[in-house]
Amino acid sequence: MKKEKKKVGSVGKKVGIIISIILLVILGSRAVYDSITSYNLAVKSHEDFEREETEVLAKHIEGRFKKAYEAGAALIAATKAVMSSNSAAERNRQTINEIVKEIFLTNPDLSGLGIFFEPNGFDGKDISFVRDDNKTGAMGIYVSGEKGNINIKTTDYYFGNTWYTMPIEAGKDILVEPYISSVGKLVVTYAMPVIFEGKPVGAINVDIDIDGISDELAVSSTNNDEDFSVLLSNEGVIAAHSMDKSRVMRNVTESNPKIKEYLAAAGRNEETLVTEKSQRTGKESRMIYVPVNIEGTDTYWAMQSINTVSYFVKDAVNGVILNVVLSIITIIVIALVIFSVLNRMVSRPLSILASAIKKFSEYDLDVSKEGEMAQKLGYLDANDRVGVTMRAMSVLNDNLVGIMKEISSYAQNTAATAEELTATAK
Fold first, then answer.
1. Gap between the Cα atoms of 53 and 47, Å rounded
2. What is the CA radius of gyration of the chain?
3. What angle do CA 305, 309, 312 make, to 5 degrees?
4. pLDDT value of position 167
5. pTM
6. CA distance linking residue 51 with residue 58, whole number of Å
7. Segment 11-56, tens digit of pLDDT
8. Can you give the chain as a three-state secondary structure string?
9. CA distances from 213 to 182, 239, 262, 292, 302 (A)
10. Would you say residue 316 has pLDDT above 70?
11. What pairs with residue 241 in β-bridges?
12. Higher pLDDT among residues 328 and 263, named by residue
């Protein structure tokens, strides 16, 4: 029965597989570490970018409030100057009216500016100014509109309104929550008391047009359904929305009470980063709350940046995928190089030697084919263990051939001698 011939495995391949596995573990571990590090760095980088962008928006809003506050402060200062330099009887209401108009016209972000006095709080002449639309004759003027189309109101309609009574009662500047004005614009009001000779004699209102802030936020290059901005008042009312103006004036704390905590942090001038479901998209989102300092008050609003998590980490995920692909390609290339080197330096020389030795074991000393191959591949001239072994094998072959020739010669001589002896014996 013929013995089944077993397939001989390649030592080079085995060594190559072992080395490749080791490399796979080492480089794979490194790739995982680099990917995690790259992911975290990319997320942190995007987070820093979004934070900086939101801070820029917050500073822009602060600048608008500051200008409005400065306009109010200028009106108070001018009014006090008029009152200080004139006795009550000498004070002219028209002078105040002109000051209000001038300040209003030089501040295009204002939707209205007014100053209102307590009964007889300005000149003590209220009785002289009683009319059908001003039954008390109180000194009050409100200017609105725009250059070329100014509206002036001088009635006593302000008595009893919270935006008038609040600053007088509190004795400090107050920012009234956003509301829709009589002309349909979204405004927010600075309510500031006029303190003269140690007591409140009236209040001014600086109405800021914030209706256009949503449009300003919408033109940002990064604004989209996955990445948008929202301006929140300290009570949680949406004052501006870069993607959906229909949400303006909604109170977000009613559907998510946690936002009160983030607004409270803004009140402490602290930024907040959270991951929650967006009320607008319903998707898990990264939200950054940056405080907006309201000049002249202890009130802080918040600029909210909302990014869906998938969008927020998109660059990081792409970076990880690229890193993994490059790592796999690197491992494959290195493995191929190792297999190629081992095949040339180990597998093929061993294969040639094994073929020659196998022939020797079968008493076949014709290894010229193996010798030609070794010569062609340069193994016989190699200055290493492979070259030494190949040359030793070649010498061994020559020696065996020489021995076999000598044995054959001796055998022939012996046979001839035997024949001679046989012939002689006969």
1. 10
2. 47
3. 65
4. 93
5. 0.69
6. 10
7. 666 676 777 778 777 777 777 777 777 777 777 777 888 889 999 9
8. CCCCCCCCCCHHHHHHHHHHHHHHHHHHHHHHHHHHHHHHHHHHHHHHHHHHHHHHHHHHHHHHHHHHHHHHHHHHHHHHHHHHHCCHHHCCHHHHHHHHHHHHHCCCCEEEEEEEECCCCCCCCHHHHCECCECCCCCEEEEEEECCEEEEECCCCCCCCHHHHHHHHHCCCEEEEEEECCCCCEEEEEEEEEEECCEEEEEEEEEEECCCHHHHHHCCCCCECCEEEEEECCCCEEEEECCCHHHCCCEHHHCCCCHHHHHHHHHCCCCEEEEEECCCCCCEEEEEEEEEECCCCCCEEEEEEEEEHHHHCHHHHHHHHHHHHHHHHHHHHHHHHHHHHHHHHHHHHHHHHHHHHHHHHCCCCCCHHHHHHHHHCCCCCCCCHHHHHHHHHHHHHHHHHHHHHHHHHHHHHHHHHHHHHHHHHC
9. 19, 8, 22, 14, 14
10. no
11. 230
12. 263
Of the candidates 56, 150, 46, 61, the one whose C-alpha atom is nearest the C-alpha of residue 98 is 150
Q: Cβ of 328: how many Cβ atoms within 10 Å? A: 14
Tell me the per-residue pLDDT of 83-134, one tens digit each, with 9 for 90 and over. Answer: 999 999 999 999 999 999 999 999 888 889 999 999 999 999 999 999 988 9
Please tell me the predicted confidence (pLDDT) of residue 9.
55
Let me know: does 240 contact 214? Beta carbons within 8 Å.
Answer: yes
Is the distance from CB of 99 to CB of 78 less than 8 angstroms?
Answer: yes
Pair of tokens at residue 384:
């290493």
Q: How far is CA 259 from CA 106, 272, 287, 298, 354, in A?
A: 37, 10, 11, 19, 79
**Per-residue pLDDT for 2 more than 60?**
no
Question: Using an 8 Å Cβ cutoff, are 193 and 163 in contact?
Answer: no
Output the CA torsion 377→380→385→386 (10° steps).
Answer: 40
Q: Among candidates 113, 244, 251, which has minimal Cα distance to 179?
A: 251
- 314 exposed, middle or buried (CB, 10 Å; 0-12, 13-18, 19+)? middle
Residue 326 pLDDT greater than 90, yes or no: no
Cβ-in-10-Å burial (0-12, 13-18, 19+) of 156 comes to: buried
* Residue found under tokens 């004699």: 201
